[in-house]
TrEMBL record:
One of its GO terms (molecular function) is actin filament binding. This is Actin-like protein ARPC3. InterPro entries: ARPC2/4, ARPC4. One of its GO terms (cellular component) is Arp2/3 protein complex. The lineage of its organism: Eukaryota, Fungi, Fungi incertae sedis, Microsporidia, Metchnikovellidae. It comes from the Eukaryota. Belongs to the ARPC4 family. GO terms for biological process: actin filament polymerization; Arp2/3 complex-mediated actin nucleation. Its main location: cytoplasm. It is found in: Cytoplasm, Cytoskeleton. Keywords: Actin-binding, Cytoplasm, Cytoskeleton.
Length: 152
């Protein structure tokens, strides 16, 4: 499954060494890339010896999903301090990005971040799909009420 592939790729890439926590190497110079693709999703892992940047592209089949995705990602990124590995701005052409440093990987068990980020990728797709279904249900209810008022 896509979430398992993300978790495995992050776990393989999480062998980080200590470096400058203020200026991770992945932010300053080109890094080795690994791409994990699902049906309509894509995850890019950029690896350097002291940091790992994970960028997610979320499935957006239509304009409503694009709108919901943009708003949801904006909501999450405004709370980046609470989620210490979430970046405030995603990498260009991606929806949301995470930055792991050696300090993050030593603070928790080795499997902590791969599992959390993979679960986040699965949950964000599920949440956006649920929001679309709720928006469509509300639209149908409003349209039905509107037409009942017209006497149709």
């Amino acid at each position: 499954m896509y979430a398992d592939a993300i978790s495995d790729a992050i776990a393989r890439a999480c062998c980080l060494t200590a470096g400058d926590p203020e200026h991770p190497t992945v932010e300053r110079c080109p890094a080795e890339h690994i791409v994990v693709e699902g049906n309509a999703e894509r995850t890019v892992l950029e690896m350097c010896p002291d940091s790992l940047r994970i960028s997610l592209d979320i499935r957006k089949a239509d304009c409503l999903l694009r709108f919901i995705c943009r708003r949801f990602c904006s909501f999450m990124m405004k709370r980046a301090e609470a989620l210490c590995v979430l970046r405030r701005k995603p990498v260009h052409a991606h929806d949301i990005s995470f930055l792991l440093t050696a300090a993050h990987t030593t603070a928790h068990a080795p499997a902590f971040y791969p599992k959390r980020i993979a679960a986040f990728a699965a949950d964000i797709n599920r949440a956006i799909s649920e929001m679309k279904l709720e928006a469509n249900a509300r639209t149908r209810a409003v349209a039905a009420e509107f037409f009942s008022c017209l006497g149709c």
